[in-house]
Specification:
The protein is α/β, with parallel strands linked by helices and about 550 residues long. The chain folds into two domains: about 5-275, P-loop containing nucleotide triphosphate hydrolases (Rossmann fold, 3-Layer(aba) Sandwich), CATH 3.40.50; about 290-405 and about 450-545, Rossmann fold. About 40% of the residues lie in helices and about 20% in strands. The chain is built from 22 helices and 20 strands. The strands form four sheets. Strands 6-7-8-3-9-10 form a six-stranded mixed beta sheet, sandwiched between helices. α19 (about 480-495) links the parallel β17 (about 470-475) and β18. The longest helix is centred in the N-terminal third of the chain and has 20 residues, at about 155-170.
C-alpha cells in the first residue's frame, strides 16, 4: 500500500494542513520534548521533574518496574493527564508547527498527528473489523454529521476513500479477509493489530503503543515486532513504546529510556541498558555489579535460612494444582502447580505480565479459574467468592493499595474488620504498633497519605481481618527505598507472629532476602523455583526480567 499517495487523494488531511510545512525540508526538532515534568495524585508523585526527548523517526522504548510512571507519561503526552509542573512540546509531523501538549484537547492532539493504543484493548465491540477502522478515518474528514445525513457529494467521496483506506490498512496489519467479522471475534493478537490499524487511520506522525504485546503468544509477538518495524521504516512514523516483554524491546528499540519512581534513571542503546547497574537495581532490587549490596542481601538470606521455623515437619497450608486461567481467549496462567507451607513466606517473582497478580486474584476469589484445583488447609476453595474466603482467614492486599480515600485512617482499619460484630480495639492498637505513622494520622483522610503510608494502611486493614494467610501484591511498588525496607521488615514481623505470607513482588532481591522459598513466573508458567539463596545466584533471573541471555 502506498500510504502517502492514498492520503493525498483524500480530503481528510485538511484539518492538519495548517500545521504542515509543505517545503518538506529535513526536520531535526524532537517529536516530543519533555522538560521538568511533574505529575502528582494526592500524596503520590507519579512523575518527578522528568526530562525526555524523542528523536524523529526512531523507535523509543520506555521501560521500568511497576509504578515507575510509564503509563502516567503516556497519558501526559496524549492529553489525558494534566501535569502540575513542567512542559511538553511536540512536533508530531515533519515540518509541522510546534505545539504545547499540556492543556490541548485530546482530539486536537490526535488531529495534529499523535495517535495511541491502550494497555487494555479499547475496540468498538459491536462494530465489525472494517467499521472500527472506518470510524477513525471518518473522524478526520470534513463532511461531518450533516453531510452524512444529506449524503452530499463530498460525503460520498469521503466514504469511498475511508472504505479504501481502511481496507488497505487492514491488509497492512494482516487482517485482510476479516473485514466483516465482529472485532471481538478476533484472537487477542489480532485485536492488538486492529487497534494499531485504527490508530494508523488517523495518519499519525508519532504512534504511542502501550504494552502492545501483552497477552500475545510467541508467534504473535514476532509478527507484531515486524509490523512495528515496518510502520516505523516504511511509513515514516516515529514509535514510542511501553512494553514489558524485554526480548521484544531489545530487538526493535533504537533507544531505551528507563523510569523508576517517576524519574529517568538511564537512557541509551539496548546493549547499554541491559548492562546498566542502576537498571538492574531497579528491576532486581540490587545491582549485579555491586558486590557489597549483593553480599548484604546474601547475608540476610543466609541468616534467614539458618533460622528455620519452629515446625520441622512442613504442613501444606495452600496447595494449587494444574491452575489454568484465561481472560476470554487470552491464557494468563498455564496449568501451574505450587504449594505454600504453614508459617512460610513464599515469593512469586517475574516480569510484568507474567501472571503473578492473576495467581493471587484467583486464590483470593477475585478471578475464577478455567481449570485446576486450589485447596486451603484441606478445603477446596476454587471459585469461591472473595468475601467467603476472608472468613477462612485469607486476606488480600491488592496491587495499588485501594484504600478508601475519603475515609480516615481509623475508618479504613474498621472496614477491615467488617466481618466481626465488634471491632477489636486491641487489633487496632496492634496495627498502630506495627505502623506508628498510622497512629499519628489516624484521623487523616486516607487519600491524603503518602504512597508508603497508604501501603501501610492497606496492610493494616488486611490484618484487621485476622488472616492466617496474607496475600501481598507488589507492596514495594512506587515506594522510596527506605520505605521499602520498613515494609519488608514489618512483613517479616507479621510472619513471625504466625501468619503465612504469599508475596508477589518485582523487587527480586528484597523478596528473596525474606522468603523461605520462591517461584519465578514467565508467560503464565513457572520457570524457576527454589530457596532465596538458590534463586539469587541463578543467572536466569536476570534473563526473565531483562530479556537477556546470560547462559
Amino acid at each position: 500500500m502506498d500510504t502517502e499517495t492514498t492520503v493525498q487523494n483524500t480530503e481528510r488531511k485538511a484539518p492538519a494542513m495548517a500545521l504542515v510545512d509543505t517545503t518538506q525540508e529535513s526536520d531535526v526538532r524532537p517529536v516530543f520534548a519533555v522538560k521538568g515534568l511533574t505529575l502528582r495524585f494526592g500524596g503520590l508523585t507519579s512523575l518527578n521533574n522528568l526530562d525526555i526527548e524523542m528523536h524523529r523517526g526512531e523507535i523509543l522504548a520506555v521501560i521500568g518496574p511497576n509504578g515507575a510512571g510509564k503509563t502516567s507519561l503516556f497519558n501526559s503526552l496524549t492529553g489525558v493527564y494534566r501535569p502540575q509542573e513542567g512542559t511538553i512540546t511536540a512536533v508530531p509531523r515533519t515540518g509541522a508547527k510546534e505545539i504545547s501538549v499540556i492543556g490541548h484537547p485530546i482530539h486536537k492532539l490526535n488531529r495534529a498527528g499523535i495517535a495511541r493504543t491502550f494497555q487494555n484493548i479499547r475496540l468498538f465491540p459491536a462494530l465489525t473489523v472494517l467499521e472500527n477502522v472506518q470510524v477513525a478515518v471518518e473522524s478526520t474528514q470534513k463532511s461531518g454529521a450533516i453531510g452524512a445525513m444529506l449524503r452530499s457529494p463530498r460525503q460520498r467521496r469521503e466514504a469511498l476513500a475511508a472504505d479504501s483506506l481502511a481496507r488497505s490498512l487492514l491488509a497492512e496489519v494482516g487482517l485482510a479477509g476479516c473485514e466483516n467479522d465482529l472485532a471481538t471475534s478476533l484472537s487477542y493478537g489480532a485485536q492488538r493489530r486492529l487497534e494499531i490499524a485504527r490508530a494508523l487511520a488517523t495518519d499519525p506522525g508519532v504512534l504511542l503503543l502501550d504494552e502492545p504485546a501483552a497477552g500475545t503468544n510467541p508467534n504473535e509477538k514476532a509478527e507484531l515486532a515486524e509490523l512495528i518495524r515496518r510502520i516505523n521504516r516504511e511509513h515514516d512514523v516515529s514509535v514510542l513504546l511501553i512494553e514489558h516483554d524485554m526480548q521484544m524491546v531489545m530487538s526493535i528499540a533504537d533507544r531505551i529510556v528507563v523510569l523508576n519512581f517517576g524519574k529517568k534513571i538511564a537512557e541509551g542503546m539496548p546493549t547499554e541498558i541491559q548492562n546498566d547497574p542502576e537498571v538492574i537495581a531497579a528491576y532486581l532490587g540490587t545491582s549485579s555489579s555491586d558486590d557489597q549490596v549483593l553480599a548484604e542481601v546474601t547475608g540476610k538470606i543466609a541468616a534467614h535460612a539458618e533460622s528455620p521455623k519452629d515446625n520441622a515437619v512442613r504442613v501444606k497450608a495452600l496447595a494449587v494444582a494444574g491452575l489454568d486461567v484465561r481472560y476470554g481467549t487470552i491464557p494468563a496462567l498455564k496449568s501451574i502447580s505450587f504449594h505454600v507451607n504453614e508459617g512460610e513466606i513464599v515469593a512469586f517473582l517475574g516480569a510484568n505480565g507474567a501472571g503473578k497478580t492473576t495467581t493471587q486474584q484467583t486464590i483470593s476469589g477475585l478471578v475464577r479459574p478455567t481449570s485446576g484445583t486450589i485447596t486451603y488447609r484441606g478445603k477446596p476453595i476454587s471459585g469461591r467468592p472473595a468475601h467467603e474466603l476472608i472468613s477462612e482467614g485469607i486476606c488480600h492486599v491488592p496491587e495499588g493499595r485501594h484504600v478508601f480515600p475519603r475515609m480516615s485512617v481509623l475508618e479504613n482499619l474498621q472496614m477491615g474488620a467488617y466481618r466481626f460484630r465488634l471491632v477489636d480495639t486491641a487489633a487496632i492498637e496492634h496495627v498502630f504498633e506495627l505502623f506508628p505513622r498510622l497512629a499519628e494520622r489516624k484521623h487523616q483522610l486516607a487519600g491524603t497519605l503518602s504512597g508508603g503510608e497508604q501501603q501501610m494502611l492497606a496492610i493494616g486493614r488486611a490484618l484487621m481481618g485476622r488472616p492466617s494467610l496474607l496475600l501481598l501484591d507488589e507492596p514495594s511498588m512506587g515506594l522510596a527505598p527506605l520505605v521499602v525496607q520498613d515494609i519488608f521488615s514489618i512483613i517479616e514481623q507479621i510472619n513471625a507472629e504466625g501468619v503465612t505470607v504469599l508475596l508477589v513482588e518485582q523487587n527480586a532481591a528484597q523478596a528473596l532476602s525474606i522468603a523461605d522459598r520462591a517461584y519465578v513466573l514467565e508467560n503464565g508458567c513457572i520457570a524457576l523455583e527454589g530457596t532465596g539463596r538458590e534463586l539469587l545466584a541463578d543467572s536466569r533471573i536476570r534473563e526473565v526480567y531483562l530479556g537477556e541471555s546470560v547462559c
